[in-house]
Design a protein that fits this description.
32% of the residues lie in helices and 12% in strands. The protein has a five-stranded parallel beta sheet with strand order 2-1-3-5-9, with helices on both faces. A two-stranded antiparallel sheet has the order 4-8. The protein is globular, with a radius of gyration of 22 Å. Bound molecules: iron/sulfur cluster (SF4) (2 copies).
């Protein structure tokens, strides 16, 4: 652990570099790392990100053996269940938890792995899948199994968790009321945000785990400063009269995008990506989630928008804000499950029980931050 208070050092040794000697020695002493990757309510981008490390995947192969990776190799849950507890060194879990199968895998991997990493913004904060928390379960099922133009379902058939066929009972995972974070179910050791995490941070994480040179458990493996703090664009405290969609203007490549009227989430977003989007003349989308001090990323961004708007006139302000398309999807795009809003799924009183708070962490597992679901359950006097 080197430069940041809350993440891996930016200067961690790359495999094959002079500093990689410690990892080589650690690998020789311990044998190769045993890794697992799992995808839950995910788009697949996080798995592709692992492949995006290109030829460095050979370094990972030198450091580790992979025991589970559904997107890349065949496996059976019973093979994982048969592994001794704490057999795996690290499990990387990507995607939100939206159904009972994904919850089962969260518990299973927590039991089988010494270290569990929430990999990507969906596992860390609920991600884009948790925007569905703005709708309740029945609305979603009505739409998917009846509402879309391409659905033909005159009998209104819905998936059933259990169905008895002549061959025996068939089961499907239960579709939960909302999409949740991994930490809403099990204690999580490290959080690797990003949509998806950048190859640089994936490598740093694997190398740090291999060498044992890790930050305290519970840490977010990214910087503890904002994207704005790492963005090279010129900031002048200029106020704006109106906001634009990014296709409506060609922004000045040197000046702050927010000061040009584009909703750039940099002020409310944790750095670590290298300000990739602003560097490509695109506003930050907020995928690294909030920094440690920020309670709610969307609320923080609303406050930044309010402070940059150059008007005291109520109607002018209303018109300027009306230009922001899809405010919930813009300000809470990656973190509805972690937000104070939560979404209707939580309002319906259907959050899962606070399993993380009640679960006994395996030996060596660190503290887990308070859970959204836990807070909801507590607010309802312990009722689920
Ligand atoms: S974090 Fe982004 S890339 Fe990863 S599964 Fe979620 S939506 Fe896909
Ligand atoms: S608001 Fe966006 S463009 Fe402006 S400094 Fe922050 S990250 Fe850079």
């Amino acid at each position: 652990m080197t430069d940041t208070a809350h993440g891996l050092g930016a200067g961690g040794p790359a495999a094959g570099s002079p500093g990689a000697g410690a990892e080589d020695e650690a690998v020789q002493a311990r044998g190769k790392l045993k890794l697992a990757f799992f995808w839950a309510a995910a788009c697949g981008g996080c798995d592709v990100a692992v492949l995006d490390i290109h030829e460095k995947i050979l370094d990972v192969a030198a450091l580790a053996d992979i025991y589970l990776w559904p997107v890349a190799m065949d496996f059976k849950y019973k093979d994982v269940e048969a592994l001794p507890d704490r057999f795996l060194d690290v499990a990387f879990y990507n995607g939100a938890v939206r159904n009972s199968e994904q919850e089962h895998m969260a518990h299973l991997l927590r039991r089988k792995a010494k270290t569990l990493v929430a990999f990507g913004s969906c596992a860390c904060f609920g991600g884009i899948p948790s925007l569905a928390n703005l709708f309740d379960r029945e609305e979603i099922l009505d739409w998917v199994y009846g509402g879309t133009f391409s659905t033909e379902n005159p009998a209104g058939v819905r998936p059933q968790p259990r169905f008895t066929a002549p061959e025996g009972e068939l089961t499907l995972p239960e579709f939960y009321a909302g999409a949740y974070r991994l930490q809403d179910f099990v204690p999580v050791d490290y959080f690797l945000p990003g949509c998806p995490p950048t190859p640089e941070w994936i490598l740093k994480a694997v190398e740090a785990i291999a060498s044992g040179n890790l930050p305290p458990r519970g840490a977010v493996l990214a910087l503890d400063k904002t994207v704005c703090d790492t963005c090279p664009r010129e900031k002048t405290d200029k106020k704006v009269k109106e906001f634009h969609r990014h296709y409506e203007i060609i922004p000045d490549p040197e000046r702050c995008l927010l000061e040009q009227g584009l909703i750039c989430m940099g002020p409310a977003t944790r750095g670590g990506c290298g300000a990739l989007c602003p560097s490509a003349n695109m506003p930050c989308r907020g995928c690294y989630g909030p920094t440690r001090e920020v309670v709610d990323q969307g609320a923080k961004m609303l406050s930044a928008v309010a402070s940059i708007l150059d008007s005291d006139d109520e109607e002018e302000i209303r018109l300027a804000l009306a230009r922001i398309e899809d405010p919930a999807g813009t300000f809470w795009r990656f973190g509805m499950a972690a937000s104070l809003l939560g979404g209707r799924a939580f309002d319906a009183g259907s959050a899962p029980p606070d399993r993380a708070a009640s679960a006994t962490p395996p030996a060596g597992a660190g503290a887990t931050p308070p859970t959204r679901a836990g807070a909801d359950v507590a607010a309802r006097g312990g009722k689920k």
